[in-house]
Structures are given as C-alpha cells and as structure tokens.
Amino acid sequence: MKKLSVLAVLASVILASCGGANGDKAQTGTEQQVAEQQGTTFNVDSTSSIIWKGYHKGGFDPRFGTLNSEGTVSVADGAITGATITIDMNSVKTDESAVDPAKTGGKTAADLDGHLKTGDFFEVEKYPTAKFEITAVTAFDAAKDKSVIADATNIISGNLTIKDKTVNVTFPAKVSVTENEVKVQSKFTINRQDWGLAYGTEGDPKDWMISQEVDMELNINAKK
C-alpha cells in the first residue's frame, strides 16, 4: 500500500510537469539584430492565421483560439530575407468549443477573451500589439533537425515582443515561395514565463494550475 501511494504521488508530479504541448519546442535567447528586408515585398493577407493553444497542468482542458495579424515578408532569389508581423492582441478570440460553461461555473469563451485582455495577462490597453521580426533564416537539415511539420524547409529565428519583453525564438518551418505568394507554416511551443506572462504573483496557486507551455501555429500567407 505504501509503495502504491508513493507511485501515485510520483505520477501526479509527472503529470503536473507535462503541459500537453505538441509543437516543436522553440529555442529562445536574447534579442538579436533584425534582418534587413531586401528584394520583393509581399503583404500578409486575411487568409493568414495564428492559432494559440494553452493548457491546464497535465494537459487537461486545453484552451485554444486565434489572433489576427498583418505585416510584410520580403523575398530575394526565391528565399525569405526578412519579415515584420504585427499581432493585434485585441483580436484574441477563444474558440467556443474550448470552454464548457457547465464546467466553468457559467463562464464562456467570451469571458476568457476579456480576462486575457486584462492586466492579468496581455494588458491590451497598454500593449495593443505584439510583434515578430525575423532575424535569420537558414536551411532545414533533415539529418539533424526535427520537426512536427511535414517537409519542413527552413529554420526561422526572430524577435518576438509581447508587452514590454523581447525574446528571440527559433523554430522549424515549411516555406513556399512562388512569383506571387509566400507561405510559411510552423507549429512551435513557447514558455509564457519567458515574457513574464503570469496570472497573479510568482507562486500564486492560480498561475500554478496553468501550464507554462503554449502552442503557436502559424499559417502565414503573403501576396504581392
């Protein structure tokens, strides 16, 4: 019985440490110099999407939704040279299927949207936008690089600024460049604490119940 109880406690600790995230784990570092956008400019269009997914500890009850973005991607000799993407934090929208009011005391997806916009998280009145700026693009080497994205072609690095904090993130992506369109697909996981995104003060039980890992899925379409 004692052994079983120890195993049960150990299992609960392991579950609590797992966020449930399933994107490529982004490498992070200090802010880097932004790459100069050279060549032809393509504009990010409305068919693009940024999908986010957060979890409770153990991967339970995931919350997911979308964010709107705009910006430019530059291409020279068939390769991306740079990009600036601005994310509208006021556009955060939780998918209704991600929130069951029967389990949340009547709170809905719209209620979560409102909460995410407050000072508890994104503080959108003070920081209405986030920004991603490419710092480097290199070739994906299938011999040593791994990705959840099938047929990944590149490794992209860029400065991601959320609120007043900028962190350089690096992740695999599938890039397609044609004469009239650029497509970038990626799915990576970040740690929200890298940007100081915490619910309450450090060690607050409310924050502890939320996984630090957040999945970001990019589907960027840019056209001339």
Overall pLDDT confidence: 89
**Could you tell me how far the N terminus lies from the C terminus, measured between alpha carbons in angstroms?**
68 Å
Which band does the percent of strand residues land in? Answer: over 45%
Number of strand segments:
11
Classified by CATH, the class is Mainly Beta
Helix content, binned percent: 10-25%
> How many individual helices?
3
What's the gyration radius in Å?
19 Å
CATH superfamily, by name, is Lipid/polyisoprenoid-binding, YceI-like
Order of helices and strands: HEEEEEEHEEEEHE
Q: What is the number of independent domains?
A: 1
| Low-confidence regions | 1-19
Largest sheet: 11 strands, mixed
Q: What's the architecture in CATH terms?
A: Beta Barrel
Q: What is the fold named in CATH at topology level? A: Lipocalin
Q: Which structural category do the helix and sheet elements fall into?
A: mainly beta
Describe the 3D structure.
The protein is mainly β and 224 residues long. The chain has one domain: Lipid/polyisoprenoid-binding, YceI-like (Lipocalin, Beta Barrel), CATH 2.40.128.110. It contains three helices and eleven strands, in the order αββββββαββββαβ. Strands 1, 2, 3, 4, 5, 6, 7, 8, 9, 10 and 11 form an eleven-stranded mixed β-sheet that branches. The longest helix has 16 residues, at 2-17. The model is unreliable at 1-19 (pLDDT under 50).
